What does this fold into?
Amino acid sequence: MILLYHASRINLFASHRTLINVTELSESLGPDYCSTLLGFYVFTGENCTSAFKGKGKVNPLKKLEKTPKLHKAFRQLGADWMVTDELQEEMESFTCIMYGQARMTSVDTVRVKMMRKMVGTDSKSKVDLERLPPPKVCLIPHVQRANYRVAFYKRADKAIIESPKPHDPGMGWEKTGEEEVLEPVWAIGPDPPSLVEVLAQRAESEVDGEYEHEDEELEMEEIELEDLFSDDEDDE
It folds into this structure.
């Protein structure tokens, strides 16, 4: 894919031309489509970008070929180091297409629709979360990582590349732990509470509610006892 992208700009001839097959393929496809393929290749999963579970590349590529309006979006990957909101939205639209929902543009909406279909009304229905598209909070950093990788590939013919650090904001990675290990940003925004934390908070609130109920009962009993032994008489 990298060679396809650069092949149209490599000026070698005769015995020094070692990319004959790639060059012919590049010429037959055209530079624009080769640029589209490079962005598609990285977005759908390569060495440093995760793939979409069970999707591969063949079927998504067929869907991309049927959606020429998104070719430009894949060509824009790596053009700049930062991902624009418009590019992010177009990548989200293609993700919806990959999961068979061409009329939708929100992966979160697609997740809800697919989840409802999985649950259905059948008691034997199974919910397979791996078949769902990533939520938007996870797709955003994925697009950022893909953009970062494509940006390097598009500048592979440069001796020196001036680039931001992979852990800089908006690049899709972060340094974690005391050793500052470089890891992908799996989701943006605050981390959702774990199931254990949710259950613990619920149990604590229920216990507090029981204590409050018991305190109210004790207060009622004290009031009744005070009234029973009170020397005061009601006004007639």
